[in-house]
Amino acid sequence: MQEIKGKAQVAELIRTQRATRQYSQQAVSEEDIRTILNAGRRAQSSNNTQPWQFIVVRDREILKQLAEGGKYTAHVPHAAFAIALVASSKTGSADFDLGQAAAYLQLAAWDLGIGSCITWMHYPEKAKEALHVPTDLEFHIVLSFGYPAPQEHPQATNRLSSAAGASPGYQKERSQAL
Ligand SMILES: Cc1cc2nc3c(=O)[nH]c(=O)nc-3n(C[C@H](O)[C@H](O)[C@H](O)COP(=O)(O)O)c2cc1C
Q1: What percent of the chain is predicted at pLDDT more than 90?
Q2: Which of 13, 108, 164, 170 has the greatest count of CB atoms below 10 A from its CB?
Q3: Ligand 1 centroid to 88 CA: how many Å?
Q4: Region 16-146: CATH code
Q5: What is the atom index within ligand 1 of the atom nearest the CA of 21?
Q6: How many CB atoms lie within 10 A of CB 45?
Q7: DSSP classification of residue 82
Q8: Which of 104, 116, 117 is the best mutation target for the ligand 1 pocket, counting ligand atoms within 8 Å of the beta carbon and taking the most?
Q9: Which whole number is the average pLDDT over 123-135?
Q10: What are phi and psi of 64, to 5 degrees?
């Protein structure tokens, strides 16, 4: 098996990545967008179904229309670009698989210094209309991307101290940012 290097870097990306909602004006290159997309398509999926379609949106008017598809979308029109994650199958695990792809897309972007935010489409019918997505497909997730604005402080954030529920009883604890 091929030796994997750079573990420390991945750990650092995971530690420091957080939702970025304020973007600088700097454009993201075509090459970087392709690098990000390629990371997304490498995600694992149930039975290797790869049940996703990624739609890249750069047009500001369409970004604005897309923002109409969710409740908490103020950042979307200001992104350098967005990727809509459309489920191309209705298998029970498609949501989970799309979540995996989203994580890869976001980490690959962060590796390039590009921040991102997951945005939920509470009104999927509006979001589908904006991108001409067929009405019978599942579409709830948009990822917005852009270089963080100077006022954004993309540093490590608080997370639960442990993901493992200890029995008896399940107690949530907040930890300091590590
Ligand atoms: C399934 C899901 C849906 C989300 N929807 C939105 C959204 O609609 N709008 C938004 O601004 N952030 C959204 N987020 C981003 C979360 O608010 C963010 O990941 C969380 O607050 C942690 O932020 P941090 O990484 O900066 O600590 C969503 C995240 C997930 C995982």
Answers
A1: 76
A2: 108
A3: 23
A4: 3.40.109.10
A5: 11
A6: 19
A7: E
A8: 117
A9: 97
A10: -65, -45
